[in-house]
Amino acid sequence: MTEKYFNKLSTYLILLIVVFVLCQLLWEHLNGGVVSHYLLHRSDLPAISNWWGIVILPALAWFATRRIKKRIAFRNDDVSGGGRIPAGILTGFFVMLIVSLLQSVAFVSGYENITMMMALCLLLSSLFLPIYRAECILGFVLGAAFTFGAVIPLIGILVIATISAVANLCIGPLLVYLWRRLKSTT
């Protein structure tokens, strides 16, 4: 994949997300007004409007494509102009998209306890999987944006991503180092 082709793909992704957010906001506006969501689903806490999605989702898509671009090895000899995004990046994006869509469906269907259990499972898996990566964050927020807006899922996934980053980038390597050091001394 060439860098030029990747830039074209990232532009299309950002434009697709802008169209998605505009369509969602138009639909909400025509069906009773743009929805606001309360923090922790409690009306005594501040409400956050879905209008924030027009800023957050394209900015998050731009940020994610810039981070992904740094992780991809581009080829200058690719004359076809095509190529593939690495499977790990696509897997992270689509798994988190599916998880957030399932959480949204469970919440809308009245199974809020399933939504909470899925969030706890996501938190537990973040200790072992790199959920801190930008494509995972984008997939999660994008999948939950229609049900919960963009801000609340972003806050939730940033907390989980921070825990994942600390566990995978700090604590995990430290434990491996200590284990190897212990094994070499015995």
Order of helices and strands: HEEHHHHH
Give the tally of β-strands.
2
Rg = 19 Å
End-to-end distance: 47 Å
Oligomer: single chain
Strand content: under 5%
Q: How can the largest sheet be summarized?
A: 2 strands, antiparallel
Mean pLDDT value:
92
The shape is flat
Helix segment tally: 6
Quick recap of the structure?
With 186 residues, the chain is mainly alpha-helical. The chain contains six helices and two strands.
What do these coordinates show?
The chain has 186 residues and is mostly helical. It has helices at 3-30, 53-71, 87-108, 112-125, 134-148, 151-185, and strands spanning 36-38, 47-49. It has a two-stranded antiparallel ribbon. Helix 5 packs antiparallel against helix 6 (151-185). The longest helix has 35 residues, at 151-185. The termini are far apart.
Can you give keywords for this protein?
mainly alpha, two-stranded antiparallel sheet, flat, 186 residues
Summarize the SSE layout with pairings.
Elements: H1 3-30, E1 36-38, E2 47-49, H2 53-71, H3 87-108, H4 112-125, H5 134-148, H6 151-185
Antiparallel strand pairs: 1-2
Helix pairs in contact: 1-2, 2-5, 3-4, 3-5, 5-6
